[in-house]
From TrEMBL:
Location of the 2Fe-2S ferredoxin-type domain: 4-85
Listed SUPFAM superfamilies: 2Fe-2S ferredoxin-like
Native organism: Pasteurella testudinis DSM 23072
InterPro entries per UniProt: 2Fe-2S_ferredoxin-like_sf, 2Fe-2S_ferredoxin-type, 2Fe2S_fd_BS, Beta-grasp_dom_sf
NCBIfam families noted in UniProt: PRK10713.1
Pfam families, A to Z: Fer2
Protein's name according to its UniProt entry: Ferredoxin
Superkingdom, taxonomy of origin: Bacteria
Molecular function terms from GO: 2 iron, 2 sulfur cluster binding
Length: 85
């Protein structure tokens, strides 16, 4: 299984993520909390800015996303990422 590095410049930290859980859950497991509501891509509460990297979605999320935004709850990480809350 591929392991990706997810960097968060605002806290000067990074975590490893392998897509076995959501990116939101991985961050929570490392003590990094972020707002969420539905955990299903409907509400958009977990939206963050994608600075570098690529993600995909198994199903198109219903939440509205601006270019350069991703949903932590339902994206699939495709490369190392840099994100900003």
């Amino acid at each position: 299984m591929k392991i990706y590095k997810v960097s968060l410049p605002q806290c000067q930290c990074s975590v490893e993520h392998d897509n076995r859980t959501s990116l939101l859950e991985t961050l929570e497991n490392h003590g990094i909390s972020h707002e969420y509501q539905c955990r299903s891509g409907y509400c958009g509460s977990c939206r963050v800015k994608l600075l570098t990297g690529n993600v995909s979605y198994r199903e198109t999320p219903l939440a509205f996303l601006q270019p350069g935004e991703i949903l932590l709850c339902c994206c699939t990480v495709e490369s190392d990422l840099e994100i900003e809350f």
